[in-house]
Amino acid sequence: MSDGLMDGSRHRWRALTAMVAAVVALGLMSLAHGQAASLASFTQAQGLGSLEDNCLLQDRRGFVYTCTEYGLFRFDGHEFQRIGASNGLRGSFIDALHQDGSGRLWVGTRTGLYVGDGERFALAAGQPHPLQIDPGATLADLDGRLYAVSEHRLWVIEPDGAGWRMQPRFDDAAWRVTPALADINSVFAEGHTLWFGCGKSLCQLTGDHLQVWGEGQGIPPDTWTSYLLARDGTLWARSPLHIRTLAPGSNTFANHDLSGARVVTAYLDMVEDDQGRLLTRANNGLARWDGRSWSIFDASNGLPDIGIDALLYDRDHVLWIGTYGRGVLQWRGYDQIQSWQIAQGLDSSPTWSLARASDGTLWLGDELGGSVLAPGATRLARWPLKAPPLAQETIALHALPNGDMLATYYSGELLRYRVSDGGTEELAHSPAYVPAAFFDSQGREWFCTERGLYVYDGHTFQRAGEGVVPDSVFKDAKEDTQGRIWFTGDAGLFLFDHGRWTHIRVTGTPSDVGFKHLDVLSSGDFYLSGDFDGLWHGRVTDGKSLSLQHVDNDLLDNSRIYFIRHDRRGWLWIGGTDGVEFFNGQRWRRLTEDDGLIWDDVAEYAFFEDADGSVWIGTSNGISHILDPASLVASESLRVVISELILGGVPQVSSSSYRFDFAPAKALTVHLATVGAPTRSNLQFRYRLRGLEQQWVNSDRTQIDYPPLPPGDFVFEVAAYDPDSGQLSPVVQLPLTIVPPWWRRTPAIVGGCLLLVLGIALTWLLRTRHLHARARKLEQLVAQRTHELEVDKRALEETRVALWHQANHDTLTGLPNRARIFEILAKAVVDAQACGQPLALALIDLDLFKDINDHHGHLAGDAVLIEVASHLRKALPAEATLGRCGGEEFLAVLPGTMPDDPVPFEAFRQAIAGNPISVEGATLHITCSIGVTWLNPGDRIGVDLVRRADAALYRAKTGGRNRVVMGESSPVSPADRL
Known about the structure:
This protein is of the alpha+beta class.
């Protein structure tokens, strides 16, 4: 009986202990963090050959690498490029990756250990039996040696002359003393100490001193796989079930276990963010330790419902996530922008208005009603305001000092929520729909309706501006520092100045009606938008007229503006269809999904600055909270890198300059990459080959192709440009020298001249010696020599003509090459201007030509170019000239072609589209896009026509291809000013 009671008591004690442990665990872990993650996904479409990403690493140059089951991939700022057999890396299943203190990159594979510089790799050690590297954190360097885990044994790799020497770190005697040394599963270097998982324990090796950490030192039995040395000196160690930390100077690991962790894998990365918080994998998401508790981010936050294998928080504050089957993710705006969507409790989208009540609760008005975010809460809740059944769209919120909230609906209702009793009362009702409402400093609410202006002063609701303000649509209102209130609408701009109404005359804008949004800063700066493009700026001088000028910003010109607001710093914020643009007084900066904004389509009027200076933005797909706007204008270290140069299809060894022999059949390809900034979807490159090109070329492609270069000295120059921030990277230069053939080099020419002089002197001497004795013979010799010289002269002339033709014509198609056709164009411009005759220029580019090379090979592509050139020649007017600019692009100069006459160019298009080409048994239907322009009176050089034709060609490409687009002159954009 007593034993049974004791057993029952023991069971109850165990149950109570388990309950207490569970409560403690729940207290240390937030099961669902509120914000939605804004993720950029990189899969096969972005170059990844495998979606199972085992590890992530950023090297010293800033390149990000990922390990997959199908090779090693490097991110070039746009997409991932495979580092494979052509780079010397033949292992395809990448298990581990590490950069040592000397900058060498070590790659562990199932077929051997490789070492390289990121461009070229070689098998490091283990011949004839390569060292097979185990998966996980299995590479580390310490005191000039590399430590690697292979088949659960620890190996040391050391330099040995020009190669490497490898040997086991522990011998049979050490294994007998410490059996756990025969089962090593990870390795990590800290200072002069080596840590590694050994058996179910954690081992520490300092010099030759080995210490095994176990339960007595806070290390429970498990397979320890991952490590992190935090900035404060704390060592983190992780196993599938446990997370433990060793503080500096401590002799016991502390418990930071992630409750419920059960992931059995060698890939359990841990990283530290800018605030010193640790991130690691949870069962189905991401866990973050903030110093007191764990927060979990999972599918409810927008993360894929799949395992995370790798993490990287890079030097540019970007969080990378490698997944098991979904590719690589970037958490955009991590720790800078927080977002909420319907999954996080948002009532609906879009969000039109935001306000914070006096008790700290954030109110959000949306399409169907609204939501509230209580102080400290991570999820939104439905708001307590009870609106009439027919109320539509909460377009304005205003917090009262006593805690009450005023809400205005598009359908016209003005409601007041009473915090004292939780009741809702209707204060007023507009007779027309209300696009916008504004609360002034006197406590009045102004209603911008579709039939004029109305005002509610707390007691009465009445029409405003009788006799001055028309019954038309009004869109926005703003009060300036003098207490004057400005209104915009379809009828123009109106001012209410302490009881007096004025219709303001606006000059400088395309129209003086159809105004939409406005803002007035304390400095007197006035900003306005309307039914016309762009943002307009002026200064308030008097109360009768306003002169505005266009703000030079291409991004705003191509976006519909939804609000214009300024914060307490005086920064200007512009919301629109393509994100949020703000101006800090020095430069513009655009925020989009690339920066972590939850959606690019911003909701109208949905801007709110919080008391701490943070900014809330409502969009049509949720709300975003910009925690510290100042951090978004910090200069990013955008850099462009020439990652690879290929000549004639052969990759060249990386160098600061190149020198090649002239090769008329070897094209040049330059691969570019960007490092040092978050990924931008609209990043551009500015480049030129100085010595061949004078003007800078804009492109969003990371691959630049040139036809075979003529002999000479060139400098390839390139910079990266981010339109969102206006940031231009430093210009990178790469000198190139193309050495002419031996017969065109100076020594050969000098030698030939010397030989010629010597021959002439010798001939003269012989002729003089026998002058008298052999007069008749001399005459015969002179005649014969004269004949020979004439033959030589003809041969030399033929050679000169052949060389001229070779230098000025494309070797593949026989057409004038780029240099020659530009000479022809320059002469045609001079002739046309002198004679007052029209001159047309057409740029012809084959559509999807890269697909032909990719699917049929470059020889098939060359055959297509030859056939296309032949068809174009037949369609060419007698007085016109056709040349090949390079690649699949042709340029036609047509003197005398009347402006806007499409017939010759349609003939070009039909000559290609109407003549299928048979290549290696396949019939290819080729089409082309053509950009056309004519000579303008203001054109000075042929390049002016080429720019307009290129712009027209771009529109033909983006407009669907296989078409002719007539170009017009256009202003130079800021992006072209380099």
